[in-house]
From TrEMBL:
This protein's record includes keyword Hydrolase: yes
Record-given protein name: HNH restriction endonuclease
Organism ancestry: Archaea, Methanobacteriati, Methanobacteriota, Stenosarchaea group, Methanomicrobia
GO molecular function: endonuclease activity; nucleic acid binding; zinc ion binding
UniProt entry keywords in alphabetical sequence: Endonuclease, Hydrolase, Nuclease
The HNH nuclease domain, residue ranges: 177-239
Amino acid sequence: MGEEVWEQCRDQGIAATGYYHHGEPVVGDCSKISEEEFDAIWRDKAVNATTSQSSVKHVAYHMKTDDIIYAKEGTLIAGKGTIKSECKYHPGIVKQEGVRWEHYVEVDWDENFKPFTLDLAANQHTVLKLNSERVEKIREMETKSDMLYDYVDGVLKANEGEQYITETIFRKRNRQLIKQKKQDSDYRCEVCGMNYEEVYGEIGKNYIIAHHIEPIGSRNVSSPTTIDDIALLCSNCHNMIHKINPPMSIEELSYQINK
């Protein structure tokens, strides 16, 4: 999953997937149909998306309470959690431009998990059932990551402005800043003023998207990110900002919707 999708899942305490065909979910609430009926629906609709079919099936039928789950962004293992429910159905529970997911399980994401990079040679899969070899690789990297982050903590405390082990430090500091920014906010979009809880009720509580005002990829030199470099946006405003390249500024979009 991409970074923004992962943030939506993490913030809502869920893991989700889905697939839309002609604007509608291929299958509805999987708790009301058997796995055999699920397969029959995909066959009848002639949907040529075997990877997505497999992903939805894993979430709907194969994930069980107390199973361990890992979240992946490309080759980055970004999160680890424990499944806390059977599959549920809520169209659009995770959405951004080009992504709209409806099948999900509740997850207790480990706040102390340290992300690490690991190529599982299966990056095309949205949901992948881990075999023993992959589990062993992940556990080995988890141990190394714990040791590295303990060292990085010391480096950050002693040399806050310097870039040692650049990627690791950036990801760690970036997550801390985003978490602090959200905790200090009223979870209201800085462009349009939307608050997800006011619109969607309890399911929208404490949900908002973190946006880097200066895109990370556009920086010519390594520079520290501060809390003022992060804006909090609803998904619609965030998508609109990124409709053009380079992205629109907060002020430009505010002008567009208020003129």
